[in-house]
Design a protein that fits this description.
Layout (H helix, E strand, L loop, with lengths): L9 E9 L6 E9 L5 E4 L16 H14 L3 E2 L5
Parallel strand pairs: 1-4
Antiparallel strand pairs: 1-2, 2-3
Length: 82
């Protein structure tokens, strides 16, 4: 399913670039999208890699894969969120 055929809003992890002059930085955040793919918002705090002993086998690997996908995509500038 492509972004243009989604029926509901969705989220993923993405790198966001924050322009603060000499103090500029980038961080991985949860990014929320409208069903049509338009940016909706992002999590206040950066995403963290975490799992518990109660999670099913492979939970850590799947979390790491989400971060790897975020790093493989182009970064989003924070100002794009309006």
């Amino acid at each position: 399913m492509t972004d243009s055929t989604r029926k509901h809003s969705y989220w993923n992890l993405r790198v966001i670039e924050f322009d603060a002059g000499e103090d500029s930085y980038s961080a991985v955040h949860e990014v929320y999208y409208e069903a049509d793919g338009r940016l909706r918002g992002y999590s206040v705090e950066p995403a963290i890699m975490m799992w518990t002993a109660d999670d099913e086998p492979g939970a850590a690997r799947r979390a790491l894969e989400k971060f790897q996908r975020a790093l493989a995509e182009p970064a989003i500038k924070a100002k794009e969120f309006g």
